[in-house]
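[worker-b] picked up task from shared queue
[worker-b] task type: protein-ligand structure
[worker-b] ligand name resolved to flavin-adenine dinucleotide; SMILES cross-checked against name lookup, match
[worker-b] sequence length check passed
[worker-b] input payload:
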Amino acid sequence: MSNDTDDTASEDASVLVVGGGPAGLSAALFAAKNGLETTVFDGDDTWMHKAHLFNYLGIGSVGGSEFMATARQQVDDFGADRRQGEEVTSVRETADGFAVETDEGEHEYEGDYLVLATGANRDLAEELGCAFTDEEVVDVGVDMETTVEDAYATGAMVRPEEWQAAIAVGDGAAAALNILSKEQGEHYHDFDVPADAERLFGEELAE
Ligand SMILES: Cc1cc2nc3c(=O)[nH]c(=O)nc-3n(C[C@H](O)[C@H](O)[C@H](O)COP(=O)(O)OP(=O)(O)OC[C@H]3O[C@@H](n4cnc5c(N)ncnc54)[C@H](O)[C@@H]3O)c2cc1C
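[worker-b] inference finished, payload out:
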């Protein structure tokens, strides 16, 4: 898989992800898997705890909390620092990136990139100075970057309605791939092939 090979985007760049619902964990998964130092802060108020998914392509039926447990394990396995239960209380730009403070209050965390994934709560994006649309959601393009360079917004916070887990996961992936492309200096693909699965799991389990 990509994070085990020499084609990782950068060992040095770091990403702060605020919010550990489907959008934030997807961003964290792609970032950590591909070699970026990744920290995720999450208050565990995700709507997924109220959901049961029958509409997530490729998954027949799964409880929302069960989906989250698998997603968290996946992100942990790829080496992200998931700070469950730690709420971000403020965000700001620094000379070379971003800094966040949390309710644990001991120190600031700094990162080169910031991914906001705070669900329908858009307060941190407002605090950072991100532009909003006429529909009062955070203004982003298809790569999920906000009007603040290197700051991304993903998931429910960028949509007035039409909220779905699959869309949030796609938003998070788009943000992380854009960060990886910036780091690599060319379009980045996180493509694995059957040989990668064979190498990791052996021929019997690769399917
Ligand atoms: C009753 C119900 C049923 C649903 N059923 C389905 C369904 O069947 N299929 C489907 O596809 N979708 C369903 N959804 C929608 C789906 O749950 C959302 O689209 C999805 O959860 C949005 O993901 P998100 O990551 O954008 O936000 P969320 O899942 O809301 O996650 C945001 C996370 O950010 C954290 N957070 C916020 N602010 C901070 C902060 N300052 N610091 C740290 N953490 C913070 C929160 O604690 C939360 O964990 C349902 C929603 C509801 C309410």
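[worker-b] attaching auto-annotations
[worker-b] The first strand starts at residue 14 and ends at 18.
[worker-b] releasing lock
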